[in-house]
Amino acid sequence: MDELWARSRAGSHAGRGFHYQDAVATELAVLAWRGELAALSLIPEGLEDVSLELAAHRLHLQAKSRREHRGDFSDGDLADGWRHLAERLVADPTSHVGLVLERPLAGVDTGLERTLADVASPSLRKSVAAAVGGLLDAAEFLARAHVLVMAAEQTTAVTLLAERLGIAPASCMAHYAILRTRLAALADENGVRDAADPAALTVPDIARLLDNVTESVDASALDEAVRSGACALVDFQTAVADERFYSGVDVVAGHVVAGLPLPRPELTDALRDGLFDQRLALAVGPSGAGKSALIWLTAYETRHLVLWYRVSRLGGDDVPALLRLVRGLKPAGAIVGFVIDDLGRDDRVGFDALVEELRAEPGALVLGACRQEDLFLVRTANDALQVCPELEPELAERIWLELRDGGSTGWTEWREPYERSERLLLEYGHLLTEGERLEETIAAQISRRIDERRVVELDLLRLVATADAYGADLDGQAVMGAIGVGAVDMRAALERLVAEHLVSERDGRLGGLHELRSRYIVAEIHRLPPATLAASARRVIELLEPRLLQRFLTRVLLEQAVGDDDVLVALAARLTRDADPEALTAALQALRVVGFRRNADKWRAVFDEEDASPTNVELITYFAISGNDYSMFPEAMQRTIERVRGLDYADLRPALFSRIDGVVARALAQAADIATAAAALAALAGVAAPLAIDAGELAKLAADAPLADLRLLLEAADAADPALAAALAEALGGSAALLKRLESEQPWLRDARLDIDDAGQPIAAAEYVYVAEAHQPKAHDAVVELARYLAALAPAAAVAVCRAVDATGDTAGLGDVPLADKTIDRVNLPTRAEVA
User: What's the pTM?
Assistant: First the structure.
C-alpha cells in the first residue's frame, strides 16, 4: 500500500484541474453531514481522488469529468479507469472502489447499495474483464465496484446545505466555498503525508466547520439581492425540454441542461478565457445569432468553479445589493459570476456601474449578451472580451446531424437550409425542424387569421409584436382597453396566439417569444394596408409605461422603422394629454440618445472620408468641440476639424417642444420629488429652445430637502438653462445663504463665500481643512467634490476656487507642493446631469 500511495501522489501534485474532483468531494461531504451517506470520514487524494471510510469498508472513488459536447461515457472510454481501480482493490483487499462520472455510462448508476455485478450489461462485463485481466478476477472486481453519476454542481450542494441549515441558499454559498477550500487543502496536504496518517475530514469536523461559518456570515447581505428580485441562483439541474426551442425562444439555463443548444467549444472557450483574463466577457450579434445560448453554455461549462447568478433586473439601485453579495462571499474564497442577457434594455441601466464597482473585486465575473445595435449603450463594452457568434458550416452540419439522428428534420442534407438561413442560428433551426423559414411560417399564420377574419387576434398581435420587436412588452389590461374588447374575448384570442407561439404572457405582461419572431410578425402584419407600422407605433407609444418608452423610441428612431414626424406627433399627443414627468424624461432622453448616435454616424463618415488616423480622432474631436485654435496641425487634420464643425447637429427635442407648448412646466409641476424633477431637467441639457419654467415652483419642491438633493436639482437646472439655475438659487434663499448652509453642514469646511477674482469674474470659494488623514477622504478628491458643490450652489459663479488647508490655515502640502489647490472653470466641472 505504501508503494501505491507514493505512486498515486501525482493526482495531488497535479492540482485541482477542472475542479470537478473538488466538487465531488464537497458534495459527498455534505451528504455525509446530512446523514444521507454512511461515511465516517473523507480522505481527499487518498488512494484515489476521494476515499471514504464507511462503517463496513473503505471506498476509493475516482472522479471523471467530461465536457458535454463529448457526450456520454462508453465502455471503451473507461478501460484505464477500471484497471486503475483494480490496483486499489489489490492494495486494499477489503475495500470497494467506484467511478464518479459527470456524464452517464449507458444508464449504469449503481449507487452504494448495489455493485456492477448487479447491473452490468454483457458488453460492460466484457470490457471490465479485459481491463482488469492479470490483476484481479473480473467477477470479484464487479462485486466490489460501483458507478455513481454525479453532476456535482455547486447549486446541488448549496441547496442541500440550505435545506438542513434553514437559511437562504445565497448565505450557504459561504459554507460551500469554505468546505470545498478545506477539502482542497487536505488534498494538497496528502501530497506529502504517509499512507498510515492521511489528512482526513470526519463528519463531526464538517459539522464544526459549518457551524463556525454560520456564526460569522452576514446572511442578510448575501440574500438581499435575491430577495429583492434582482438576481437568482442559476439552476443547472432542472432541464427545460421546450418543444418550441428550434422555432425561436429566448434561451435559458434549463435548455442547456436539456442538451438543446449544441456545444460551440471554440466560442465558449473564448468567452471562458475572457472571463478569467478580463473578468468581463460579452456575446455580441444580431437577434437570432445564438448569443443567449452561447453565454448559458459558457456558464454551464464553468459551473463547478463559478457560482452563477442570473440577473433579471439591474437598475442603479440594484448595484449595492449585488456588491454586498460578492463582498459577503469574499471571505469564503468564492468566485461569483453574474449572467446578464439582453444588455441595452431599460432595466439593465446599472450594468456599467456594476462592472466599474466590480473592478475592485477579483472574485467576481460578468458574462453578458448584447445586440450589436445596442452595444453603444454599454459604456464598459470596450473593457470586455467580445465574441460575435455566427452560424458556421461546421456547426450547421453538426446541428443537422443531431436533428436527423433524432428524427426531427426531414432535410436530407444541411447546405440548402444553411444558405437560406442568412447564417442566423434561430432561422436555421426553424428551417430544419419546420421545413420552411420562420418568416414563411409566420406569414402563413397571419394569412390564416386574415382569411378567417380573426380581428381581435390581429389587433392584439399588431400591438404586442410591434412593442416586442423594438424592445418592450405591454400590460395586458392596457392592451385590452386599447383594442376595445371584453375579458372573455381577450382571453380567447390570447390563448390561441400563445398556443401558436406568436405571443407570450407572463404575470399579465404580453410580449413575444423572440425578437426575431416579432420582427417577422411586424413585417407581415403591416405588409398591406390598411395597417401601417407608423399607426401601430403611435398606439404603442400611448400604451407604454415610462420605463419602457425610452428603449422603444430609441430603437424605432435609430432603425428608422417609422418617420421622425410620426414619432413626434405620437409623443406630443401623449404628453399633451398627460404631462407625466417620467414619460417626458423618457421621451427627451430617447431623442437625446438618437441625436448623439446620428451625429456620431456623421462624424464617423467624415473621419472615414478624410482617412483620419484612429490615434488622431480624439484630438480632432476635442478641437472640433472646444472651438480652440487648430492652425498648428497638418492640413488634413485642419480640414477634418473644419468639416466636423460645419456639420448640422441632429437633435429632435426642439421639434418636440414646438408641439408641446407648456407641457414641460406642467410636467415639472407634477413631479413627486426632486429626483423626478432633476431627471426631467437633465434631459433638457443642450436644448437650444426657450424654457418657460417657474423657478418658484421648483423651489417649493425643494423645501426642507437635504443639501445633496438641492445640489442635484440645481445641477440639473443649470444643464437645462443656466438662467433657470440662477433663478432657482435665488428662490432658495440666494447663493450666499446656500454656501453658509454648506459650511455649517459639511465637516472640515470653512469660509464658503462669493467673490470676484482678479480678472473680474464671479467666483465661489471655500477652504477644506485637512488635518486628520486617517479619518478624511483623499485631499484631492475632497477638494474636487467641494468644487462641484460650489458650482452647483452658486450658478452665477464662473469659477470654483478651493484648497486644502492645514491646522494653521496655510495650504496643506509637502513643502512647496500643495496637496490640493484648485481653480476650476465651471465648464470643466461636468455634472451628473450633463452626462445622464
Answer: 0.70
